[in-house]
Amino acid sequence: MKTRKRRQDPDAEYNFWQPATDMMSALVYVLLLIIALLGLYLLSDYTGLEEPSSSSEEAASSGWHDDDYDGWHDGGADDDPGDGDGDGDGDGRYDQQIIQTGGGGGGGYDEDGVKAAVFAELIDEETERRIQEAGVRFELYRTDTAHLINGSLQTLNTYYPEKISYREYETTGEGTFYLPEKIWQGSYYFRQLSEPEGYDAAADTYYDVDRMYDWPEPYIVQIRVAPCKNIIRLQMNDVETQQPVGGGTFRVIAAEDIITKDGTVRYTQGQQVDTITCDEAGYGESVELYLGKYTVQQQSSPNYYTTMQQDLDAEVEKKNGSDPELHKIDTEKTKIILNVTDELTSSALEGAVFTVTNRRTGTTQTVATDGAGQIRLTDLDKSTTYLIREQQAPENYRPDDTDHTVTVAADGRIDGAGSTTLDITNRLLRVSISAVDTVLRSNTEGEQLSLYNEQDQLIRSWTSSDSGQLFTDLTEGSYYVVRGKADPANARKYPFTVQDTASTQNWTVPVFTLRSAVALAVLAVVAVGAVWLLVFLWGILARRRKARKAAATQDETLDQSENKS
Predict the structure, then answer these.
(1) Integer Cα distance of 366 and 363 in angstroms
(2) Domain map (residue ranges) of the chain
(3) What's the rounded Cα separation, in Å, for the pair 173 and 131?
(4) What is the pLDDT of residue 107?
(5) What pLDDT does 337 receive?
(6) The domain 335-428 is classified under which CATH number: 3.30.300.30, 1.10.150.20, 3.40.50.1820, 2.60.40.10?
(7) For 175, which of 122, 168, 209, 348 could close a Cys bridge (C-beta 3.0–4.6 Å)?
(8) Which string of b and e fits 542-554 if b means at least 16 CB within 10 Å?
(9) Tell me: the pLDDT tens digits for 225-241?
């Protein structure tokens, strides 16, 4: 469709208000747009809203040169958007250590454009030395802005070669880190997300920024952390009863150089760092010690107990909400054990009586063996020698006449051991008397026998049996036996001597019985028969030899006759 150009009347008056109004409206719109954008920018700077592109992967494209705060160059978010970290590592984080400042926010400063560069360092609160560990992570919070929730998380940015947002900051190997951009004046705190090795978590570190700080001389925040400590716990029990034993003391010795991450040697190897004393319940614990390996040595033992010879290895570890490991120590009571047995049979002897004398105090106690032939001596004083002597043996036994001495050392041990055993034998004199057939050499039953001592006192009369008569109540000396009921003064005596020996002494009384006579008669008959048989056989042999000789002579005569013919 073709349009027709409108002709302007040359005589008409020109209206300039219409274009002027349009131009003013456009300027107002542009001004309002600029104000809105500026407001959004400032609001974003305060609230710490995270850009959609913020992540640890985005942070990998930039890196700040953060080895020390004096290595920074001027330029923050507002000064020069082209500044980056300059280290080229691409991790977008900060390896650092930290110190702690007290304080707290609440300044309520106006945002008048004053911003500050911040440098943080990780500090040992005991030594004031830097903790040189990388990778300790922190967050930044602001607390003083009225229109924000207290403790709002702050997100900071770098802008070269692209914008990267940071919510966490890491220490370098020097134990320090920089904030990637300057922050507005106000009240802030660092919150620790991870701990350095061997240190506890730090409390929130509050600080105020009230004036401008530039990169060559940034605002320094020290984040103070305490080295981890823990205790060593011991429990002493009797090794046999498992009942608590109190009173033992133990040395705690560093098994290695104990060095914290700030480079401080807390303990040197071999240094005694504490002494543990166990209470009546057998429990003891050390003071809080730095993390590391330790050796526990017993310094003294309770009364009547031995001192532990082997050292205990203990490691102090970081607290985890539960009690540290309880090291159980079984302690042994010093003991002297007496075993009394029969010298011949090795059977246990009950009722053997001994005296035990403490040579240091002179006190004496009397004890006797039990059914197992045993005496257990406990509650023995240390650094003391004991004399042990048998006073009375069981019935009919001869007591051991040896004086035994046992010394308990200062550590409660006897010759290096917690106990010692004395094997003691008692001797019983055993005499066996039997009536023996003189011919058959066997025990004879039914013989009346009587035993007398050398004072012609009758000791016992009995009738013989196959097994013989055993005497266990005889002492050393001379004795004799009489057969029958004859007067010992006129009867035949069979003397013998009892000797002091553990083996059984066998004595025999020869007896000629009917069995002996029959045996002799049979023997005589057998002998006569044997002689007759020999004579008979000899005669047969002689006749045979004579016949063989006569035949030989006859044959010789016939041979001579044939030769002559």
Answers:
(1) 10
(2) 41-227, 229-331, 335-428, 431-515
(3) 9
(4) 37
(5) 97
(6) 2.60.40.10
(7) 122
(8) eeeeeeeeeeeee
(9) 999 999 999 999 999 99
